[in-house]
Structures are given as structure tokens and as C-alpha cells.
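Sequence in, structure out. First:
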Amino acid sequence: MAGIFDSIPIITVVLFTLGLVGVIVYERSRSKTPDDSDS
């Protein structure tokens, strides 16, 4: 059972990273529309 608790921080970091990547990809795909080109 200790192995599960040992891997909790790793799972948290992976989920957090996936969330960040998802938000970045979503924002980039949204900014592809020629409404507001800020770059």
C-alpha cells in the first residue's frame, strides 16, 4: 500500500502538467481565429 502513497506526488505533478498543456493548447487553438491576433 505504501507504493500507492509514494506515487501520489508523481500523479499530482503529471495531472497538473497535463492540465497546463491542455489550457495552453486550447488558448492557442482559440487564438488561431482571426479575431484577436496579439502576437
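Second:
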Amino acid sequence: MDVTDAAVESAESGELTTREGLRKRRFDPKPAAFKCRRCDVRHICNAARTR
């Protein structure tokens, strides 16, 4: 499978958008027991506390 330049640019753009949103504490958590147990920020996440 070849990775295209467009795919790399799209992934980089998505990562930058996500990182900026997290810095500004602007994101919509989607809590789920399976995901929350493995999440690196579960100890400080209000959504994880409600699970």
C-alpha cells in the first residue's frame, strides 16, 4: 500500500487541529468504558469520571 502525499498532509493537518483543540481545552470527549480504561488523560478527564 502506497501512502500518498495528500494522505500524509491530511493526517498532519488533523493532528495539528487536534493538538490545538486540546491545548485550548476544546474537544468533545466520547467516553466509553473500553476507551477510558486505556486513555492517558483519564485521571484528569471529567467525562471519564462519570463512567
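Remark: The radius of gyration is 14 Å.
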